[in-house]
Amino acid sequence: MSPAVQIALAVALVVVVFLLLLVLRRDRPRDLVAPDRPAGHGQAEVLRLIHAGRKVEAVKLLREQTGWSLLEAKQAVDALASGGTLSPGAPAPGTAVDDAVRAEAARLLYQGKKIQAIKVVREHTHMSLADAKRYVEGL
Hints:
mainly alpha; elongated
């Protein structure tokens, strides 16, 4: 047998072994992965976490549900902990946009200056980048 054929057989053998290892590894159970937690049920789940003394988890859940910044979610959790409520359509704390800012952002957006519009909204409302982007895109 020529050396070229021997090398080709060796390479083919290595490839086959590699593919077998990949297939066997894929079929192994993933026992180290934590199971998914069931999704929360809105404000009721956040309130349950707060009453259980798990404010950090409540803030995290609220951020996942609303897209709020860490500060906004913490302020909301603190408000809920002190007996306040959050209505579903209420704006995030600290995100009220006055008419002048809204008009300036709309003007910039109309001119094709989306990034500048987002900056204006962020400077005047202290929204997170994601919230300001969503707000500008909704104009």
